[in-house]
Design goal:
Order of helices and strands: HEHHEEEEEHEHEE
Strand content: 15-25%
Structural class: alpha+beta
Shape: globular
Number of strands: 9
Largest sheet: 4 strands, antiparallel
Radius of gyration: 16 Å
Length: about 170
């Protein structure tokens, strides 16, 4: 319990700018709701998400969190979920191209996992997705076991985890 309090204290005091970066999509003003709709459509067309069913769907809409910039303008979204193996996952994280590289994804990840209530957590990131790897490692995730997914050798990636995770349960 003391460790959780220490972690909460560190997140609260080390990166105060991460606070209030996530907002339930249903709580957005009308302009930001329209931006979010456009970004969801753009992400749905993005080859990175093609065929993954991570962007659209009523269950995603109910859980979707908008990612805001420092002025309160939507710059992306995430679709967190709790999976059937007992892990939290961020689901799709999409940041509009003009806002990438400004640590919005990292700050959103930190904020979502800040108080420890969404742990343990796992994410699978492909080897060539350096931006996502940097965002999750910067938010405190540690690299787990490598594993191949999909049909070809180019679909290599790695598990990353946060919180206490039974390493034997990470798929290899």
């Amino acid at each position: 319990m003391k460790l959780n309090k220490l972690i909460s204290y560190l997140f609260e005091n080390v990166d105060e700018t991460a606070r209030n970066i996530l907002v339930k999509a249903s709580d957005l003003d009308e302009d930001n709701k329209e931006r979010l709709k456009q970004y969801i459509d753009a992400a749905d067309e993005d080859p990175e998400f093609a065929g993954l069913d991570l962007v659209k769907g009523p269950e995603r809409d109910n859980n979707r969190l908008a990612i805001l910039d420092d002025k309160g303008i939507v710059v992306g979204f995430m679709t967190p979920r709790f999976d059937d193996r007992g892990y939290w996952r961020t689901g799709a994280i999409y940041i509009v191209p003009k806002a990438r590289g400004k640590r919005y994804a990292q700050r959103a990840i930190k904020e979502f996992f800040r108080d420890g209530s969404h742990q343990p957590a796992r994410v699978w990131i492909s080897d060539n997705n350096n931006g996502s790897q940097g965002a999750f490692v910067g938010a405190g995730f540690k690299k787990g076991s490598p594993r191949a997914v999909g049909p070809g050798p180019d679909d290599q990636g790695h598990d990353y985890y946060l919180g206490e995770v039974d390493q034997s349960s990470i798929m290899v």
